């Protein structure tokens, strides 16, 4: 690679353990990586199914190529890749507590507003870092944020990264303890709703609290501020329909 960093690692330094989840390309395992100094580092290993086509494998590795450029405390770090033979693996730093959405839902009782705002702040430092590298994530949502420790969240899943998406939706998800925005609304219908002035309900406790109000329609904006909002579920393509010109 251009910076002289070779991310290829020897497969026998990686020991796969339990499955953590299923990714788009294959299972994601917990694992242990033994580095050159003999340290045992807990890792997450994304695997690419062997029956995937070659073009899929390339697509899979793209995420690693993107991640290797980053070095930030709130972005999941790439440890290395095993790409010289099959199955291809992407080895990365393990976020011990897994997906933020589930963490928010399961730990409500010990997540005070300060912690939620800290998470939002940490993610904004990660986004600001990405922007400084002229990078954009494109899929900011609670499901793509991982929890490393009770006081530290990290941005993961760079499969879609390209341009920065509206961040407020993710902060809404945090303040709502992991509730998905726009549930029951089709991806393609979200933009229309937003253009019509519909907004997500204010999270409890924010600004005088309007807990019972469903949707607060403010005056119709002259130009919609949102584009490519991630509604409930997976929402990969909505952003492609209205990609704003990124600031230079
Ligand atoms: P999708 O496209 O559906 O988001 P993906 O291929 O991008 O899938 P991920 O969502 O990144 O795969 O990973 C699948 C699951 O594996 C995650 O939901 C999470 O539970 C777990 N996981 C991924 N990376 C890590 C990590 N670094 N630390 C801990 N768990 C992880």
UniProtKB/TrEMBL annotation:
<feature type="compositionally biased region" description="Polar residues">
    <location>
        <begin position="232"/>
        <end position="243"/>
    </location>
</feature>
<protein>
    <submittedName>
        <fullName>FAK1-like protein</fullName>
    </submittedName>
</protein>
<feature type="domain" description="Protein kinase">
    <location>
        <begin position="14"/>
        <end position="248"/>
    </location>
</feature>
<feature type="binding site">
    <location>
        <position position="46"/>
    </location>
    <ligand>
        <name>ATP</name>
    </ligand>
</feature>
